[in-house]
Amino acid sequence: MMFYSVIIPAYNAQNTIEKCMLALTNQSIPKENYEVIVIDDGSTDNTAEMVKKFQVKYFYQPNHGPATARNKGVREAKGDIIFFTDADCMPQHNWIEEMAKPFENPKVMAVKGAYKTKQKTLIARFAQVEFEERFNMLKKAESIDMIDTYSAGYRKSVFLSLGGFDPSFPVANNEDTELSYKMSRAGHRMVFKPNAIVYHFGHPDSIRKYAKLKFWRGYWRIVVYKRYPDKALKDTYTPQTLKLQILFLFIFLICLPFSWVMPNLLFYLAILCLILFILSTLPFIRLALTKDLIVALLSPFFLSVRAVSLGLGIIWGIASQKKSE
Fold first, then answer.
1. Low-confidence ranges of the chain (pLDDT < 50)
2. Is the pTM of this model over 0.90?
3. Helix axes 293-324, 122-139, angle to 10 degrees
4. Which of 31, 196, 228, 277 could form a disulfide with 113 if both were Cys (CB 3.0 to 4.6 A apart)?
5. Which helix (H) or strand (E) holds 243?
6. pLDDT value at position 324?
């Protein structure tokens, strides 16, 4: 019988960790077949007291970031298969069972589950449709190259052989992308399991939070792309329309203010790029219409915020990389 280890990094997670623990200590598989490990990454709130209410393994470390915390959890784990989720997630009752099924195939080295949310704000609902768009891409791939840590599974031996998560990523941002690309380069098979679901409490609930999140996503993705430049062109997780939207919108924003200099060129180029941006949003809008009418109607605005925020993050990432060289 396979034994599993579930690892959760936690930092000041008192508001969500209890729901996470309740879900993980009441899974559909027998309790003797898995363990739950919480790595407290230097919390200053009541995270420790919340966790210690449950029969789980608790470890404390000074604040070094989630990559270091997860790696510590793996070193403490007894399971041959390790799973990760986050302290602001609530796995479904059969999450471990569903995540474990692909590992029955000895060629599968890692598994990715799916996000859902019950949040009601518009921006959180838009963020969920973003994930649904990516999930549709992953479903078409026989082997994927992106495993997010909110719902991730690895063979422990492979995880350790690759060195785990890179601790130079100080926050929960693209350290999982870096490991995924490393696994992909090594030729390991990773698969998507859409029935392995966790509910997330932490989708951004305001435009400001969303834009900030996307800015830093863009910044850290450049750090990853510097190591794996081939993935900047295409991977199994990033819609090509997203890249086009960034390109079209930035050309529009650059050309329009200067269109008076060369009106016959820059103005019409700006208008053309605006039209192309709008056309590139249509596949997302079509998907959103099947999920949430209001989100679909507001998608062009939300997608423009995404494009600008990611683009600025990418520019800042490139500039920072240049400075460090």
1. none
2. yes
3. 80
4. 196
5. helix 240-255
6. 66
Closest CA to 122 of 325, 270, 291: 291
Quote the CA–CA distance of 136 and 58 in Å, as a whole number. 36
Q: Which two tokens stand for residue 224?
A: 């990853």
Cβ-in-10-Å burial (0-12, 13-18, 19+) of 286 comes to exposed
**CA–CA distance from 311 to each of 58, 124, 149, 243 (Å)?**
40, 21, 24, 9
What span, in angstroms and rounded, lies between the C-alpha atoms of 188 and 159? Answer: 11
CA atoms within a 13 Å half-sphere pointing along the CA-CB vector of 92: 16
**Residues present in the chain in total:** 325
- Coil, strand or helix: which one is 76? helix
How many separate helices (H) and strands (E) can be counted in the chain? 13, 8
Residue 163's pLDDT is 94
Strands 89-91 and 34-41: unpaired
Nearest in space to 64 (alpha carbons), one of 42, 85, 88? 42
* Amino acid identity for residue 159 in this structure: F
Distance of alpha carbon 265 from alpha carbon 324, whole angstroms: 37
What Å distances lie between residue 313 and 190, 211, 237, 240, CA to CA?
A: 28, 10, 19, 18
Angle 259-264-270 (CA atoms, 0-180°, nearest 5)?
Answer: 50
Predicted confidence at residue 318, as pLDDT, reads 92
- pLDDT on residue 260: 64
> Is residue 238 classed as helix, strand or coil in its secondary structure?
coil
Q: Quick check: 100 and 4 in contact, CB under 8 A?
A: yes
